Amino acid sequence: MERRQNWTCESHEEAFRTIHKKLDDIVDRQIAYAETSTRIEMRQKQLEKIVTNGLTHNVEEMTKKINIICEKLSALEDFKWFRQPITKFRDKFFWYSLALALIGGGIYSLVHYGSTIVKGAILP
Description:
Number of helices: 2
Order of helices and strands: HH
Strand content: under 5%
Distance between the termini: 132 Å
Largest sheet: none
Helix content: over 70%
Number of strands: 0
């Protein structure tokens, strides 16, 4: 692709032709690089737009879900009078069960072995 005037000097004609060709190649590469860079920038902007829109969409969904959770928590706070004692009972349930088992075992022992113990204590 010739863009320059051909200055003719018979002794340097081949050298000028080679230089012009090299310069034309350099210009062609620079134009191709500029076009490629422009396409890359356009794709990058498109990707940034997609990511930004996706993140915005995700943030909106998360905001809605968090608002729903907050509403449910505020509803639970209305039942605080019921929730706190039940939670306390749940936390101490094992110890209450153990105490009930020991008391039940003690009552069973008194009923079953009570007469033997009383006879042994009274009669030597």
